[in-house]
């Protein structure tokens, strides 16, 4: 008997260890839910198990918040949609690359930001589904340049455009009035229409009238990014060569933005930092280059104190900043179902809903005629007709040549170079040299 | 365990003699099993640690070493091109690497030295008979329990240029506002402050535990010899704490070499650059920037190995110092 109990005790211990071990291993395993285990037979159309589709996104992407998943699940009772989100794209994107490399841990649909899309189409297109022929996809619905950006060299369209970032200039009416500038959005737009240097000129007028307490723009980097966003060639040429060093458009953008910094026209803030948020709340700058998706952010940060003060006017030149794509990794278990969902999510009607609910501007030009877009007004921004303002910007933006390392080049130009000029008092040449040195180091494999 | 073998005591039942060899065999088998048990069980019980260490410690270490000899990009981690020691040799002329090493060193000194001195002081105070001593001990440890992210976000606001509380307080006593994040030394000081705030309590508790192990007789005889409180602290407490101080110094040094979360988040959205002039980019941050922003896995692996070698060097120095110290104590 005693040996028996000893044996059973040992068995129990063994079982406990085994259970612990499998528990730990299970913890490591990816949670790509198997449809059989997840399935609930109750709601199925054919009485079969539900198919679970996962969507991987970064930030508050908006698809879920706008209720699009719920709408799709209502249309397709046999589909269940789950979303995983990583707050920041600079953490999301490396993880996506790792998962694509190993072919595991992937969601059925993965979002890609525009600054990464060139690298994805150039290096990952073999691991992604061609969505151009997916049911429900209509090439002519999309802006031609947006479609081109999601298409790889072998004319495989791996990314379907969600939103774009047509950019306007958001400004504070009370500060403009103080500086003796017009406050009506059409008149304001006319002040600088067609030339970024006119924008600089208005800034100088503003500074002369309102010497302290508030600056004309938030940051020189914001100006730099919106100017480079308005030219067709930016950091790469059509042949895929890095040309930012000799590109006159970049040079001009650098000079204009530097003039803002050295002329004391900026509030010396860094965008998306807590101090920038405080700047909105404390009205420490009068204008900011604002892509459509930034309106909600400004509303959140400027809050009740900024009510009835903000408005939005057209930028000097049509410019694009930001936007995203949806891709379907081939390693997924339900690629056909996922492609169908991606096509539906990016269709004009759904993009219009996303704009109405979240302010993400459609990349499907077919949506611009829909009343939800064409007649859209933003209450917080003095009922500005944002549908019209941004549609005009989106249609006027030149087709920009993208390159795989756009993000790194842009980040170093703004966060190293321009920031040194603006905040550390370095000369524009010193700032440019520092940025070039950092970019050279970053691009060297 | 040993008592279990009593189960094998033969029962005096008649007619059992014929099975004696069988029983002997069974005994033999059992004792063999017992010997095996004693011999191998410890290995089985410690195996999980080594398995996990092999999977999550040793394998990454070796793989990183292998990758550091190649040109590898995160966009296709399986395409490796052999480059020999190029990733290491280019570190020698890489200004960003030396800058990061310098920053790591200054931030390390700025955080470790005050941290250990303050911890020693706090531990000394907590060692007195205090009302509600448990409360103070727990309170001292709370920063350690806070997440790096939460703590750093608060400190970023405190050290803000325009609306930060530190500048507000400096303004009250008539100083100009300091641009904490953009200055070289000021940003490193700010990052060090976060580290000091988080780790001082932890070290204080370690010191406190060591202090409570110091025999009261020593203090008593010191007091009889007319030693003041301060003299007791210097000549009784500190020497008794020497091994503990060495331990905390080593652990803090390792922590300082790997410093990552604080400088990363101190930069807010700007990522791994460590400020516009890389003024507070540490080695850990530069590694991250090369690997996960610039996507050069090979170069990042070389930095990781360089850090590993630096730690080995620190370990060797520590061993020599502690060896000398022990000799000094015995002689």
Automatic annotation (TrEMBL), chain A:
<dbReference type="Pfam" id="PF13416">
    <property type="entry name" value="SBP_bac_8"/>
</dbReference>
<protein>
    <submittedName>
        <fullName>Sugar-binding protein</fullName>
    </submittedName>
</protein>
<dbReference type="InterPro" id="IPR050490">
    <property type="entry name" value="Bact_solute-bd_prot1"/>
</dbReference>
<dbReference type="InterPro" id="IPR006059">
    <property type="entry name" value="SBP"/>
</dbReference>
<keyword id="KW-0732">Signal</keyword>
<feature type="signal peptide">
    <location>
        <begin position="1"/>
        <end position="26"/>
    </location>
</feature>
TrEMBL record, chain B:
<protein>
    <submittedName>
        <fullName>ABC transporter permease</fullName>
    </submittedName>
</protein>
<feature type="transmembrane region" description="Helical">
    <location>
        <begin position="40"/>
        <end position="63"/>
    </location>
</feature>
<dbReference type="InterPro" id="IPR035906">
    <property type="entry name" value="MetI-like_sf"/>
</dbReference>
<feature type="transmembrane region" description="Helical">
    <location>
        <begin position="240"/>
        <end position="260"/>
    </location>
</feature>
<dbReference type="InterPro" id="IPR051393">
    <property type="entry name" value="ABC_transporter_permease"/>
</dbReference>
<dbReference type="Pfam" id="PF00528">
    <property type="entry name" value="BPD_transp_1"/>
</dbReference>
<keyword id="KW-1133">Transmembrane helix</keyword>
<feature type="transmembrane region" description="Helical">
    <location>
        <begin position="138"/>
        <end position="160"/>
    </location>
</feature>
<feature type="compositionally biased region" description="Polar residues">
    <location>
        <begin position="1"/>
        <end position="19"/>
    </location>
</feature>
<keyword id="KW-0472">Membrane</keyword>
<feature type="transmembrane region" description="Helical">
    <location>
        <begin position="105"/>
        <end position="126"/>
    </location>
</feature>
<keyword id="KW-0813">Transport</keyword>
<keyword id="KW-0812">Transmembrane</keyword>
<feature type="region of interest" description="Disordered">
    <location>
        <begin position="1"/>
        <end position="29"/>
    </location>
</feature>
<comment type="similarity">
    <text>Belongs to the binding-protein-dependent transport system permease family.</text>
</comment>
<feature type="transmembrane region" description="Helical">
    <location>
        <begin position="302"/>
        <end position="321"/>
    </location>
</feature>
<feature type="domain" description="ABC transmembrane type-1">
    <location>
        <begin position="101"/>
        <end position="318"/>
    </location>
</feature>
<dbReference type="InterPro" id="IPR000515">
    <property type="entry name" value="MetI-like"/>
</dbReference>
<keyword id="KW-1003">Cell membrane</keyword>
């Amino acid at each position: 008997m005693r040996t028996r109990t000893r044996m059973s005790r040992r068995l129990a211990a063994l079982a406990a260890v085994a259970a612990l071990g499998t528990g730990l291993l299970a913890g490591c395993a990816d949670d790509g839910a198997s449809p059989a285990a997840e399935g609930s037979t109750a709601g199925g159309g054919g009485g079969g198990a539900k198919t679970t589709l996962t969507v991987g996104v970064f930030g508050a992407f908006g698809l879920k918040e706008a209720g699009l998943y719920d709408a799709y699940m209502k249309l397709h009772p046999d589909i269940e949609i789950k979303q995983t989100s990583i707050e920041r794209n600079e953490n999301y994107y490396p993880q996506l690359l790792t998962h694509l490399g190993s072919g595991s841990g992937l969601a059925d649909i993965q979002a890609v930001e525009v600054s990464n899309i060139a690298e994805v189409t150039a290096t990952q297109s073999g691991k992604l589904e061609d969505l151009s022929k997916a049911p429900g996809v209509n090439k002519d619905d999309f802006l031609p340049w947006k479609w081109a950006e999601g298409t790889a060299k072998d004319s495989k369209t791996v990314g379907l455009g969600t939103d774009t970032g047509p950019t306007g200039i958001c400004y504070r009416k009370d500060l403009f009035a103080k500086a003796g500038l017009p406050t009506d959005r059409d008149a304001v737009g006319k002040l600088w229409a067609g030339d970024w240097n006119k924008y600089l000129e208005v800034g100088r007028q503003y500074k002369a009238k309102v010497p302290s307490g508030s600056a004309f723009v938030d940051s020189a980097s914001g100006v730099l990014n919106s100017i480079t966003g308005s030219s067709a060639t930016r950091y790469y040429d059509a042949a895929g060569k890095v040309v930012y060093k000799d590109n006159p458009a970049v040079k001009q953008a650098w000079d204009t933005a530097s003039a803002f910094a050295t002329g004391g026209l900026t509030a010396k803030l860094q965008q998306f930092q807590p101090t920038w948020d405080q700047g909105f709340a404390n009205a420490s700058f009068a204008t900011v280059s604002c892509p459509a998706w930034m309106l909600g952010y400004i509303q959140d940060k400027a809050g009740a104190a900024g009510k009835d003060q903000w408005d939005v006017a057209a930028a000097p030149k049509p410019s694009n900043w930001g936007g995203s794509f949806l891709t379907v990794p081939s390693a997924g278990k339900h690629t056909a179902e996922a492609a169908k969902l991606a096509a539906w999510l990016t269709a004009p009607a759904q993009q219009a809903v996303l704009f109405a609910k979240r302010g993400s501007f459609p990349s499907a030009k077919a949506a611009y005629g829909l009343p939800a877009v064409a007649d859209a007004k933003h209450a917080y921004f003095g009922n500005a007709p944002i549908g019209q303002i941004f549609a005009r910007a989106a249609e006027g933006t030149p087709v920009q040549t993208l390159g795989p390392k756009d993000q790194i080049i842009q980040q170093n130009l703004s966060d190293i170079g321009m920031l040194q000029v603006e905040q550390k008092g370095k000369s524009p040449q010193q700032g440019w040299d520092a940025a070039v040195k950092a970019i050279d180091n970053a691009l060297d494999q | 365990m040993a008592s279990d073998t009593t189960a094998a005591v033969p029962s005096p039942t008649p007619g059992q003699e014929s099975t004696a060899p069988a029983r002997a065999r069974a005994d033999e088998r059992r004792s063999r099993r017992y010997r095996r048990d004693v011999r191998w069980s410890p290995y089985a019980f410690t195996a999980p640690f080594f398995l996990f260490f092999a999977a999550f410690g040793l394998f990454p270490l070796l793989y990183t070493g292998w990758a550091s000899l190649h040109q590898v990009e995160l966009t296709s981690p399986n395409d490796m091109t052999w480059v020999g020691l190029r990733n290491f040799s280019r570190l020698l002329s890489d200004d960003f690497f030396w800058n990061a090493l310098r920053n790591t060193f200054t931030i390390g000194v700025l955080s470790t030295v005050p941290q250990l001195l303050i911890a020693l002081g706090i531990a000394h105070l907590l060692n007195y008979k205090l009302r509600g001593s448990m409360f103070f001990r727990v309170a001292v440890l709370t920063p350690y329990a806070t997440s790096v992210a939460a703590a750093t976000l608060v400190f970023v606001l405190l050290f803000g240029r325009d609306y930060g509380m530190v500048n507000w307080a400096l303004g009250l006593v008539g100083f100009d506002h300091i641009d904490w994040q953009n200055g070289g030394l000021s940003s490193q000081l700010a990052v060090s402050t976060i580290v000091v705030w988080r780790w001082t309590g932890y070290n204080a508790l370690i010191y406190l535990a060591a202090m409570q192990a110091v025999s009261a007789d020593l203090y008593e005889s010191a007091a009889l010899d007319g030693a003041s409180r301060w003299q007791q602290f210097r000549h009784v407490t500190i020497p008794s704490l020497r091994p503990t101080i060495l331990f905390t110094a080593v652990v803090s040094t390792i922590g300082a070499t790997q410093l990552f979360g604080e400088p990363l988040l101190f930069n807010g959205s700007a990522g791994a650059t460590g400020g516009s002039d890389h003024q507070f980019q540490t080695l850990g941050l530069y590694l991250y920037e090369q690997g996960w922003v610039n996507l050069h896995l090979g170069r990042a692996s070389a930095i990781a190995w360089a850090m590993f070698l630096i730690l080995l060097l620190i370990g060797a120095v520590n061993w020599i110092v502690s060896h000398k110290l022990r000799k000094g104590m015995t002689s």
